[in-house]
């Protein structure tokens, strides 16, 4: 049942060099994890047409994707790990906690309705202690707050009529926790004369894949593929402001579904800054930015690195006059989506985050720029600096320039 | 002064046949000493597909050999559970192969009673997705996989537990005679050069391709047709069944899944030198091309190494067939008293891995007749202890894959390995590809025989995975020195031998990941560790 066939048995290509182990954030702080090489290609080889070997340590993998990047032989390590997570969840069962975390969207919808109460409760120590005791949620870890006025309530535009048309994939975080990011994105597009449509969409599935809920994740993937293909076939570009969602649409859907649709959609997907960088290259970007005398640090989320497109946010923000941006050049933040909320992962999560925090303090910028809402969660908690999404900075630079003129 | 041993029977050749003879002798209460110039099974016995024949491969041409094979197939499944993987076989007809042969084959199987069952092509493709979509017919057969490494070691261990003696790394240098009868042999320790005189009533020559050499020690003419066959190992076990091409037996037509790999072969070229296990890349390419009608993606799949071994074929009147395909696979039991007028000397050769037990039975029947022993053969009923050790290692702190390996593998050593593991606490595999821990490796290092990585490999699968010892060979050598099992000097010499041996099999593959793997291995051993041939000078 667990002998999933891949288009190419990429696990066969592993030459055991250990590059993935060296680059694995978890292996770097803990010997309790078997490491990506063992739990990925090595284990896959051992179970082919043999007895299945279930290794519960797969839970410690964050699916950050650094292993894929480091592999010199193009082994799809993280895909193998994701399928192991699925198999392990089937064998060992899924904790209620992990089910809740995997379903970030449902939680977001509910929490958003009762936002004031939810937020208050999530900040109360006794409530957090109960959550830790009952659900295994780390009481030391702060949760992002939820907004009643979520993006779904604010923005209902389903079509665009400009020359370039954007189909915006907002993702759960910008929808329920930080609608200001989504709003800033729409504004930035407006300044570039591009209308933004928001197609029907569901959670990208990343939290589901990470919690072994592969089936549900694939269902969401199918939904999003179908919904967005209707747009891309009419000439829309798919633009995303969350790096994990971008990775899902660009790569994970292809790896997990191996469908024609997944391949077709991926060809139209852009990270928001990547999109702006493309506009700039085409000579279409509005560069009327106000001067901003800011020294910023850029923290690249793992799922941005996994896309292999460099640091487009830095490329764009450095177009703002006076804006100085430095790459923090740190590894993983340790939050890793839902990972950092789990009690039993607290030590690993915080140890991973430690070197990131040190790097941020060392750069000593005015604030940190990052795209990922979950990285922001760790940055907010572990560093003394504020964390801002690049779209918010850009929207501000455009607005200031407009007011001045 | 030469050491002296007295026994009833000397068995020369510690391959599968010799092991079987030794166990049968011990089971019948006959005192015996097995003499092997290298390690157990280091010759032909571990240089093959590891195929448990059902007999149906030979059924059209040689009915008797087929019946013999099927009979033994059933016995071994019962009596050698630790070494057998009941994969089942799948005989497949591809376009262009003779339809009439298929009819003959089905009919012949029916006649001798080998159960073969035709299944729809679609079902075969579902079971074995790597098979060509063009196949025209598929039959399930009772073939299986044998692990010859486990087999030879376990059978000898069982013989030893019944009182037999074993001298590995001892080469027979002289067969002692008094007039027209054999009185013993002189054997020489191949490490120290020390000689031992063994006095015995009979000598059994079970030296496989080296049988001619052993016979010449007794001045008996024996011409073996040594037929070299090449095989390749795929990096993972991609098929469930043994897959065979349904046609008149020829080259390159069996894919056998065994442990964590699939073996494919073979070729057949007659050679004069039984030590010739040379590898030829063109021969390998030709063989892979022959495999394409069954597995079209064969050239895209990763190979980890190639190897070759010599089939000991024997035909009383000689044969001038250079491929060796038409020489009988039946066994040859030669009573040199009748044949050459030398009493007390028997050669058992030819035959198949699958029929080793039967060969041993017939040989020992003859020995017993000559010695006047009336005990009957019991090896068709007595079970060799299983490797399964599921009741052990439950509380040992180790990763599931390593635990899985040791619980399928430890057998009678389970208790002592478990104790070591509990004591040492660190049970991280030394060989990651095949999940071999130090505790397991240590349990197979023989006392007083020196440290030998190849010996550990044969007994544990250390270094048999895709990286071919890139990492585990040096770990093994280092840990062994640290634990005081060996000296740094001996360890470097062993390391050098071991790396060279792995390199030989990888070099002929020469492409893809294995070429890169080899480069990495070279970089680690030559550059990082500075391993040089000078290490050999210590011998």
Description:
The N and C termini of chain A lie far apart (65 Å). With 405 residues, chain A is an alpha/beta fold. In chain A, helix 11 packs across helix 12 (179-191) and helix 14 (214-232) crosses helix 15 (243-257). Residues 1-7 of chain A have low confidence and may be disordered. In chain A, strand 7, helix 21 and strand 8 (386-388) form a beta-alpha-beta unit. Chain A contains 22 helices and eight strands. Chain A is globular, with a radius of gyration of 21 Å. Chain B has 539 residues and is an alpha/beta fold. Chain B has three domains: 3-43 and 149-224 and 329-371, FAD/NAD(P)-binding domain, CATH 3.50.50.60; 85-145 and 227-308, D-Amino Acid Oxidase, Chain A, domain 2, CATH 3.30.9; 400-538, no CATH class. Chain B has helices at 16-27, 63-79, 99-112, 121-127, 148-161, 211-217, 281-291, 336-340, 356-371, 400-409, 414-424, 438-444, 453-460, 472-482, 488-507, 512-528, and strands at residues 3-6, 9-12, 32-35, 51-52, 84-85, 89-93, 117-119, 137-141, 144-146, 165-167, 170-178, 181-189, 195-199, 202-205, 225-234, 242-245, 254-258, 261-265, 269-271, 303-313, 331-335, 345-350. In chain B, strands 6, 7, 8, 15, 16, 17, 18, 19 and 20 form a nine-stranded mixed sheet that branches. A six-stranded mixed sheet of chain B has the order 10-3-2-14-22-21, sandwiched between helices. Chain B has a four-stranded mixed sheet with strand order 1-13-12-11, with no helix packed on it. In chain B, a hairpin with a 5-residue loop joins strand 12 (181-189) and strand 13. The longest helix of chain B has 20 residues, at 488-507. The model of chain B has no long low-confidence stretch (mean pLDDT 94). Chain A binds chain B through residues 5, 9, 11-17, 34, 37-38, 42-43, 45-46, 48-51, 53-57, 73, and chain B through 129, 235-240, 257, 260, 301-302, 399-401, 404, 432-433, 435, 465-467, 470-471, 513, 516-517, 520.
